[in-house]
Design a protein that fits this description.
Mean pLDDT: 90
Order of helices and strands: EHEHEHEHHEHEEH
Number of strands: 7
Radius of gyration: 15 Å
Number of domains: 1
Largest sheet: 7 strands, mixed
Shape: globular
CATH architecture: 3-Layer(aba) Sandwich
Strand content: 15-25%
Structural class: alpha/beta
Distance between the termini: 13 Å
Strand order of the largest sheet: 3-2-4-5-1-6-7
């Protein structure tokens, strides 16, 4: 992949994580290396277990704590988990080790102030050429939406085929 693009899956509908994990399996099937950082979540759901078991080209880190952050103020453990997620995600984006980097539920972390605007923009901008970046979650901020090449709000908002003429690429769209 010569060009890596920045994709956002957002909105209130179901399917953001599912779409990102489907893309991870498609990329792994095409021989691409994938990094997944899941923010907010601490429980290893079934799809993460199967990815770890059957897809050695996919690395998964969970950056959450037990319990839901909704309905309470974030505490120090929430902040520390998000900081770890930021640092490991930045390292993955800059490492040239991964073709695809997925930051799942990232926008929830920005919404609750666990990730600052400066940090979020830094992650969007620091990826090496050819690295595909996917961020998911409700509440995608405008400052990241403006940077994205593809935005899906569980309906198509923007696609780089229409805006840049990029054909379907192995491991990403097919």
């Amino acid at each position: 992949m010569e060009n890596g693009y920045f994709q956002i899956y957002t909105g209130n509908g179901k399917g953001k994580t599912t779409a990102a994990l489907g893309l991870a399996m498609r990329a792994a099937g095409a021989g691409l290396k994938v990094y997944i950082g899941q923010f907010i979540k601490s429980m290893e759901y079934h799809e993460i277990g199967i990815l770890r078991e059957r897809f050695p080209e996919v690395t998964v880190d969970l950056f959450g704590i037990k319990g839901c952050i909704a309905g309470r103020d974030p505490d120090l453990t929430d902040i520390q988990a998000a900081w770890e997620g930021y640092e490991k995600s930045k390292a993955a984006l800059m490492s040239r080790k991964y073709d695809v980097v997925i930051l799942d539920e990232f926008f929830i972390a920005t919404h609750f102030g666990l990730i600052t605007r400066e940090q979020a923009v830094n992650l969007a901008d620091c990826r090496t050429p050819g690295t595909e970046l996917i961020m998911t979650g409700r509440f995608a901020p405008d400052y990241l939406l403006d940077k994205a090449d593809l935005i899906t709000e569980m309906k198509e908002v923007r696609h780089y085929y229409a805006t840049q003429g990029v054909e379907a690429r192995d491991g990403i769209e097919r």
